[in-house]
TrEMBL record:
<dbReference type="InterPro" id="IPR027417">
    <property type="entry name" value="P-loop_NTPase"/>
</dbReference>
<keyword id="KW-0347">Helicase</keyword>
<dbReference type="GO" id="GO:0003724">
    <property type="term" value="F:RNA helicase activity"/>
</dbReference>
<dbReference type="InterPro" id="IPR044742">
    <property type="entry name" value="DEAD/DEAH_RhlB"/>
</dbReference>
<dbReference type="InterPro" id="IPR011545">
    <property type="entry name" value="DEAD/DEAH_box_helicase_dom"/>
</dbReference>
<keyword id="KW-0378">Hydrolase</keyword>
<dbReference type="GO" id="GO:0016787">
    <property type="term" value="F:hydrolase activity"/>
</dbReference>
<dbReference type="InterPro" id="IPR050079">
    <property type="entry name" value="DEAD_box_RNA_helicase"/>
</dbReference>
<protein>
    <submittedName>
        <fullName>ATP-independent RNA helicase dbpA</fullName>
        <ecNumber>3.6.4.13</ecNumber>
    </submittedName>
</protein>
<keyword id="KW-0067">ATP-binding</keyword>
<dbReference type="Pfam" id="PF00270">
    <property type="entry name" value="DEAD"/>
</dbReference>
<dbReference type="GO" id="GO:0005829">
    <property type="term" value="C:cytosol"/>
</dbReference>
<keyword id="KW-0547">Nucleotide-binding</keyword>
<dbReference type="GO" id="GO:0005524">
    <property type="term" value="F:ATP binding"/>
</dbReference>
<dbReference type="GO" id="GO:0003676">
    <property type="term" value="F:nucleic acid binding"/>
</dbReference>
<dbReference type="InterPro" id="IPR014001">
    <property type="entry name" value="Helicase_ATP-bd"/>
</dbReference>
<feature type="domain" description="Helicase ATP-binding">
    <location>
        <begin position="23"/>
        <end position="191"/>
    </location>
</feature>
Length: 191
């Protein structure tokens, strides 16, 4: 889908400066770090990157987005349902029925958005196959670390064998990117 069509679907006339910089800087199959304040439009920015990564519609999970909160998961799900035409999008988070989520996974959504604890649980229970995931988004990574999700994120990353692109978003820069992320030579956009 062309950028103009995506923006029309979302009722947006143009990208903001940060989003334009992200689109210009992105290179397929490279790790990417986006530093920008909360509320600046990071969700749309990384959604555009995800659309570049998605293969044709196949029956496997291609993209996993880890977020620190249920509210953020639902917000991202709304955006992606509008723009990921033809690709099934599903959400998994604490407080939601694992049975319903497990049923959603049977049709192998192209994109799964979820909180680290719930995604870890689904991987442990074998509810979806992470082997086809090629793009991992760690959204609001700083907040995920603050909330104590490092062990869950580490577990999840170790169970995804074929990640080609990691997209990390954060409102603040860390002294160092934790090694468990396996991010190497990232493209950095700092707003």
């Amino acid at each position: 889908m062309q950028l103009e069509a995506i923006l029309n679907k979302l009722g947006i006339s143009s990208l903001n400066e940060m989003q334009e910089k992200v689109v210009e800087s992105y290179q397929k199959d490279h790790d990417f770090i986006l530093l920008s304040p909360t509320g600046s439009g990071k969700t749309l920015a990384f959604s555009l990157l995800i659309l570049e990564q998605l293969k044709e519609i196949v029956r496997e999970v291609q993209v996993l987005i880890l977020v620190p909160t249920r509210e953020l998961a639902l917000q991202i799900e709304q955006v992606l349902r509008k723009v990921a035409t033809g690709h099934k999008v599903t959400c998994a988070y604490g407080g939601h029925s694992t049975r319903i989520e497990k049923n959603e996974f049977k049709d192998a959504p192209g994109i799964i958005i979820g909180t680290p604890g719930r995604i870890k649980q689904h991987i442990e229970e074998g509810n979806f196959d992470p082997s086809g995931i090629h793009t991992l988004v760690l959204d609001e990574f700083d907040k995920s670390l603050e909330l104590g999700f490092q062990q869950q994120m580490d577990f999840i990353i170790r169970h995804i064998p074929a990640i080609r692109s990691r997209i990390l978003t954060s409102a603040t820069m860390m002294d160092a990117i934790p090694p468990f992320t396996q991010i190497e030579e990232p493209i950095l956009v700092d707003f």
